[in-house]
What does this fold into?
Amino acid sequence: MIHLNKIDKYYDSKFQRTFVLKAVNLEVKEGEFLSIMGPSGSGKSTLLNIIGLLDAPSAGEYSLYEKSVLDLKEKAKVDYHRNFMGFIFQAYHLIEEMTVYENIETPLIYKGVKSRDRQAMVADLLDRFNMVAKKDLFPQQLSGGQQQLVGIARAIVGKPKLLLADEPTGNLHSSQGEMIMDVLKQLNNEGMTIIQVTHNEKFAQCGKRIIRLEDGIIRGDQVV
Amino acid sequence: MLKHYLKYAFSNFKSNRTIFAGSIVTVFLGALCISLLFTYIHNELLMDDLHKREKDIYLMMIQESPESQMEVCDPKIIDYPEVENHVTIQKYKEGEIKFTYKESSFSPEGIIADSTFFEVFDFKLKVGDQKTILYDPEAAVFTERLARKIFGNENPIGKLVTITSKREKVYTVKGIVENPPSNSSMTFDFILPSYSYSYYSRMGGKFILVGKNFNKSDFVQKMNNQVRNDPKYKKIMQFRNSRLDVMGLNDIYFNENSIDSIYIFSKSGDKKSLNILFLIIGVAFIITMLNFSNLQIININSSIKNIGINKISGAGCNQIFYQKITEIFTLIILSASLITIVFIAVQPYFNRIVGVELSPKIWQIFLLNLFVIILLVASAMVYPSIVYFRIPITSSLKNQIFSQNKLAGRKMLVTIQFALAFILLTASIVVVRQLDLMLKKDLGFTTENVIKTKFFYKPHFSGTHEEQIQLWQKGQNDYQYVKNELASNVSINCYSQGLSPIEPFTMSWKLKGRDKDYTTEKALTITPNYLKILGLELVEGRFFEYEKDKQRGKTIVINEAAKKYWGINDISQAKILNKSWEPLNGYEIIGVVKDFNFEHLSVKPQPLIMLYFENFEDEFLIKFNEGATQHGLLFVQQLFKKFNPGETFQYSFLSDEIDTLYKKEKRLSEIYMLFTIIALSISAIGLFAIALYETRKRTKEIGIRKVNGATIFEILSMLNRDFVKWVAIAFVIATPIAYYAMNKWLENFAYKTDLSWWIFALAGALALGIALLTVSWQSWKAATRNPVDALRYE
It folds into this structure.
């Protein structure tokens, strides 16, 4: 599904070029659960952002389903964000002025889903994550784990094929982290492709495959 | 979708309360200023626009000599094909014509006009046929407000009213005309047909309505040729050596001061003040725009993360755009509605300040405000929206916002704002000081405890010759009685008759035996006590004396300026000619008084001629003894009631009349102060928002500094130093501009206040004080915070 070929990402400063990613080759198949590991500054998040079309590589090729997505127009990128992938973040990135319900609903609004269908879809997810009672609360009134659940719900409400998670458990207690990982595992079992960035060896093991980045170079690629 | 946008907009307002409130207040104050001033300017510029054919209406004028003032005139020489219609109007001021209905009487202002009045001018008749009503010699036309004043809620039509001027006559109210609107330079409360009979011999002004093939210069040429060659006109003194001219109605309003319009126009405009107001509008616009721009950038800063989240959730650029538009429009509609309400509330106060009765309709106000705000916001959003779309998602999610140099740009905006506010501040200090100087300046005559009032109206002569003689005799007796009473009362220091020194009339004068032609000069008709009552100083010769001079005699007293103007060395040798009254022998000069400022202090004393006239209907100037004003007034009032039962006693203090001379400057200074305060508050809001943002951004830095041992004072001075620097730069930029502008403005006055350094220092200190106050509030909060809180989160 995802094909990265010789991806470079670098920043030019006055006298030198700093590489964040160097000649990264990566192939991800549908239904995989990939964990990207590595120390701070190894380029994990940059790699994830490139895959998520939030950042462009400095060199290399990137194709989704054999279609290059490097020189996409803004509109096409938005289409990918709407229909193809969802994001979750370490800091949850929920809109604090909106309720749980509204947060989850947002992507559907942009997608142009009708109001009645939206209600049904959001209600389904709230039900699934046992958050029906909390739908009118604001993010700050929830625990971190619950906030991340909302984040996941928002990411998957549009039924994406690919879920990109940037340290989803980084801000959480281990028990809450485990709960989140269970949810991700379950989603993967249902057929969703997941790529997560993590520091946590134990949570990395939840995935089916781990790649290890060091100074922007893939040093290891193992199947769990 | 719209519902979602609105929801989002409101939640954004809620989470950025400070910014939102700041934006609303900024737009609110700015747009309110602009639309108020605009309403006023619009009214001024559209003066007399209510007449459909305003551009085809011309007023006949005469200029007696090349150097004299143009005067309104009424030559009976209209027989030209290009003139479609014409109307002659005589205007009477308040107090000149008396209306009596039952027991009560009123003396409103009004006009006596030809039957064609409503064909030339488009004042709307509510009751009555505009074609025929002024043909009816018995008909009186009242404005709605006069009808209400006299008849209350009764139906005015058909009511009989006695009208007294030279004679007495009963009229029937047959027409009701709408009150003259605020953009009519002519004001009146009644219209009487000139068919009825002639009142006093006041000259009227003739307006002509011209057709398409009218050419102004040809027409003037034709008219003058006719006057010079026609034996009928050659004989009339007035036309000898004179030149006839016409002036377009739409030119009159802004030139009223340079012509003698014999009261026909009660309002005059001032292009200079209008330009100043335009300037103020411009400044208000720029300040508001910069501020709004600034606040929006800050708003983007705080909502940028949400934009990133939305983008990731699948929002396209256009959706982000619509979202922002919805937000902005909500803000616009909200503030437009708010302004409309406040506009209506402050309208009466504003009307009082500018001295115009403006009453635009609600929807007009709303649309105007909407337009002003949209213009403001649209121009203010240019810069923020460029910033808005350029931010990459990844950095927006990380809250990495602007680099330092972009902030420098924003500080520039604040600097410009403060520079403008500083200029306004200086201007208003100077204007207030100049006004103060003019109001307090020694005018060369005393006005203390002096009132101006009237005891008798012009007598009306009716009935047989004997009756008339009787009436006249009674009038003379009454007059003598009043004079005796005034002279013997203990509360009264002295009295005199004559025109108020600030209301001279103009006539054509000339020094006998000199080439210099007639020029328009000011004159006062007075009685001998005038010198004493006003405390004038005689520098040469003598003043009028009851024993030596006769009223309406051939003697005059002039002022020093007149003596200098005509270059007279020996007053006993010189004679002064008056074109209408004494064109041949002239007047003998018996004395010269020291110059006194009988006119607005924008000019040095001009030549003045004083004539001895004693008429019992003339105004009285009465000076009360120190502390006896109350008693004296009561006494004068009783005296008045004795001869005018049922009428209201009217008087005015001379000092108040002088104050009204400076109404324009007062108005200007009030407008200045008002808008300076508004400009300063807008700038303060901008600074506050920036300070808020800046200190928030530096929270971590402040924490680190405190952990490393910085004191609160050091933190405060560090945070404030930057802002003080920008205000100082604003001061440096603005000082020369303010100095130049105010110097220019002061050139309008003969007596000017000095532009001393402390004015600028004071304005600078005020601006700096306001800046420091707004910034310090934020800095203090930041500096006293526990550094642990600041450093806990990254």
Remarks:
- The mean pLDDT of chain B is 84.
- The CA atoms of residues 739 and 757 of chain B lie 10 Å apart.
- Chain B touches chain A through 25 residues (CB under 8 Å).
